[in-house]
Amino acid sequence: MKHLIFDVDGTIWNSTEIVAGAWRRAIQETGYSQAVVTPERLRQEFGKPMDVIADNIFTDVPEQEKKAEILELCCEYEQQFLHEDPCNITYPGVVEGMRQLAREHKLYIVSNCQKGYIELVMEKTGLGDCITDYDCFGNTGTCKGETILTVMRRNGLKPEECAYIGDTTGDEEAARYAGISFIHADYGFGEANDPDVVIHDFAELFKICIQ
């Protein structure tokens, strides 16, 4: 595996505590919804496209315009809260491990997040110089599998040389859609059905990839 493509939430870091606070503020300010957003609730949704998350959480808001307005404000406060919070929310060994992996592999990020989120991840972690390319639902408007393919095509990557590292069945389905291997980070938010490899912490990925 020469090319490693990473999910973000539940794989690189856990932002649910901070994001829940940001979403609660947006909900309070708009007054459109009575939804209760907790870190636990977000863990059930992260990995899905942002519009799907909004539909699942804001079930008491039938008007699409209002739902879109809440989501836009949620994303705005999410970026602000994450930017300002000094806490290290990466999983143990991720930053050091990705830096070591980048010495012999090309690293990429693909997420179902909004525009600007991956850039914030790279800024907060200091990993920008390790990432060859990245893309997200906010840019492509496509499913995660298609977004992975977009990055692969853009960089001329061969499927047999790629693996996607994620934590949910949605990530597994995206990898299969793109025709590449799937490595399940089971320390994250979700489960997998039939992953090619399972890692219980990030250090295991490093051990696998340098063999």
Descriptive report:
The relative contact order is 0.18. The protein has ten helices and six strands; from the N terminus they run βαααααβαβααβαββα. With 211 residues, it is of the alpha/beta class. The N and C termini lie close together (11 Å). Helix 1 crosses helix 2, helix 3 (50-57) packs across helix 4 and helix 8 packs across helix 9. It is 48% helix and 14% strand. The protein has helices at residues 16-30, 39-45, 50-57, 64-84, 94-101, 117-125, 137-140, 144-155, 169-178, 202-209, and strands at residues 3-6, 106-111, 131-136, 162-166, 181-185, 197-199.
Helix content: 40-55%
What spatial form do the alpha-carbon principal axes imply? Answer: globular
**How many DSSP H or I helices?**
10
Strand order of the largest sheet: 3-2-1-4-5-6
The CA-CA distance between the termini, in Å, is: 11 Å
Number of strand elements: 6
Features:
alpha/beta, six-stranded parallel β-sheet, 10 helices, 48% helix
Could you give a short description of this structure?
This protein is of the alpha/beta class.
SSE layout and pairing:
Blueprint (H helix, E strand, L loop, with lengths): L2 E4 L9 H15 L8 H7 L4 H8 L6 H21 L9 H8 L4 E6 L5 H9 L5 E6 H4 L3 H12 L6 E5 L2 H10 L2 E5 L11 E3 L2 H8 L2
Parallel strand pairs: 1-2, 1-4, 2-3, 4-5, 5-6
